[in-house]
Amino acid sequence: MIFLPPRWNIKRGLNGDFVFKGMTVLFAFSILGILLLMTVAMYRQSLPSLAKTGWSFITAKEWDPVEGNFGALPYIHGSLLSSLLSLALATPLSIATALFITEVTNRRLGSMIAALVELLAAIPSVIYGLWGILVMAPWLQRTVEPFLNDHFGSLPFFSGAPYGVSMLAAVLILMIMIVPIITSITKEVLLAVPDSQREAAIALGATRWEMIRMAVLPYGRSGILGAVILGLGRAIGETMAVTMVIGNTPKISWSLLDPGYTMPSVIANEFAEASSDLHAAALMEIGLILLVITLVINIMARLLLWSVTRTAGGKA
Amino acid sequence: MSEVTMDAKITLEQLNVHFGTNHAVKDVTMTMATNSVSAIIGPSGCGKSTVLRSINRMHDLTPSARVSGAILLDGENIYCKECDPVTMRRRVGMVFQKPNPFPAMSIYDNVVAGYKLNGRARRSEMDGIVEQSLQRVSLWDEVKDRLHVNAMQLSGGQQQRLCIARTIAVCPEVILMDEPCSALDPISTLKVEELIDELKEKYTIVIVTHNMQQAARVSDTTAFFYLGELIEMGDTKKIFTNPEKKQTEDYITGRFG
């Protein structure tokens, strides 16, 4: 006979734990299921376009629903250009802000600034768009863009007429929108740097800046990279604000003063009035490309962040 | 009796440390001689680490900490207004309780991390410094073939010796050690203790330890702290065989602590 303590003798059956476990498993997997179903549905809906254009869909520059020409390159170009440029501007700004919060100022002012920065993330994107089109775009058109054009007009990036609504406006709006997310994650990453690392640098005779460069940033580098990539995911998927300020012109241009177009914007603008089944399928295919890009970006970011939190929890 | 010459390297004068309302170190006055090993012992929370960390102004990083009194390094107060803590810390190195190499750096880069702060760093010079420092902590033979692998691949004891090498690579005059062996196994502990014995030829060492046998083995003088006060300081042999104060005797014989 094996002796079992009394709690092992509880009769198995439909008790609370079983129901609870079943429900949580069901809900957790339903999220995955929804994602999967969505991808499959988008794939099936975009089949007509996939069959007609194949790979040339992502290399063709012509987008003409009336003639039935669907090339997504201007949108891919616009999306990548606007999000990468905004990322390039937002990253130093965000890292500096996070460093100020965690390393430079005292705890009270730091948490106040952190809360304010995070408040930026709570502003609906249509409000950013509205501000962008009513305030920022006219300002760009009157002052910034003529200045850039006058002084740097010989560069291809600043040539052309100042429209106000432009790639530049989209880049700036996106920058403001992704600073909060990069800052707050970077802040968490920096807070996870153990004090023993800071002390090691300080004890070697490092100044505060040298300590940051030697101990804090290297320790958090993959986490910060994760934060940046998460910001990229946010920028590339942003629809409303960008649609309102980018000018919505499907033309491939390297000039920031020219209007452009992005993948989410064309979907939002044309879906309700898709002129044909092929048009709708082409929009679906753009959506599918966007979904795949953002999924890949997010998975990469999560993996990087996960590797940081794992080492922070396990070793330090 | 010890053969230590009693010229003072470090002198603490009426040192008081507060953390907020907590008075952690009370009116401590003591002297550490040049090229000697001073051990600080006492039960947990007696302020021994706090005393150690005030010798290189580590409390500057803690906003709630307030230090008063004076600490003289070669006769000069390191807490005076003109004293730059950064230059001072290059003269007073520190080894911590847990090995804390920089995890994003190789063994080589860890050793020269402090040296590189001086600005211009010449490759040939650095190679020499790395070899010397690692020789000094007898780690050279164990790692010379893999100087450029990540420092986290070393064992705990090797990491701690790497941290000591990193500290001596900047040629300090004083080395502060905050329970340097508490995270190490007995063999690594023995190695670090042998190292302390060799290092005292060139450096003045102050070591905080929980382990009384260790204090007895490595130090020339021992200071016993209790509840933030210095109870007794003197020649290590005397403290461990014939202490003057009843509290010291009770502690070293294991009656409390």
Strand count of chain A: 2
**What is the CATH architecture descriptor of chain A?**
Orthogonal Bundle
SSE order of chain A:
HHEEHHHHHHHHHH
Strand residue content of chain B: 25-35%
Can you lay out the helices and strands and say which pair or pack?
The complex is a heterodimer of chains A (316) and B (257).
Chain A: H1 16-45, H2 47-53, E1 63-64, E2 69-70, H3 73-104, H4 107-122, H5 125-152, H6 167-191, H7 195-203, H8 208-219, H9 221-237, H10 240-245, H11 263-270, H12 277-314
Antiparallel strand pairs in A: 1-2
Helix pairs in contact in A: 1-12, 2-12, 3-4, 3-6, 3-9, 3-11, 4-6, 6-9, 7-8, 9-12, 11-12
Chain B: E1 8-19, E2 22-33, E3 37-41, H1 48-54, E4 65-73, E5 76-77, H2 85-91, E6 92-95, H3 107-112, H4 123-136, H5 140-143, H6 156-168, E7 174-178, H7 186-199, E8 204-208, H8 212-218, E9 221-226, E10 229-235, H9 236-241, H10 246-252
Parallel strand pairs in B: 3-8, 3-9, 6-7, 7-8
Antiparallel strand pairs in B: 1-2, 1-4, 4-5, 9-10
Helix pairs in contact in B: 4-6, 6-7
Walk me through the structure.
The complex is a heterodimer of chains A (316) and B (257). Chain A has 316 residues and is mostly helical. Chain A has helices at 16-45, 47-53, 73-104, 107-122, 125-152, 167-191, 195-203, 208-219, 221-237, 240-245, 263-270, 277-314, and strands spanning 63-64, 69-70. Chain A has a two-stranded antiparallel sheet with strand order 1-2. In chain A, β1 and β2 form a beta hairpin. The longest helix of chain A has 38 residues, at 277-314. Chain B has a domain at 8-101 and 172-252: P-loop containing nucleotide triphosphate hydrolases (Rossmann fold, 3-Layer(aba) Sandwich). Helices cover 33% and strands 26% of the residues of chain B. Chain B has 10 helices and 10 strands. In chain B, strands 6-7-8-3-9-10 form a 6-stranded mixed β-sheet, sandwiched between helices. In chain B, strands 2-1-4-5 form a 4-stranded antiparallel β-sheet, with helices on one face. In chain B, α4 crosses α6 and α6 (156-168) packs parallel to α7 (186-199). The model of chain B is unreliable at 1-5 (pLDDT under 50). The A-B interface holds A 106-107, 194-207, 210, 214-215, 218-219, 221, 311, 315 and B 56, 58, 61, 63, 86-87, 89-90, 93-94, 96, 98, 100-105, 113-114, 117, 152, 163, 166-167, 170.
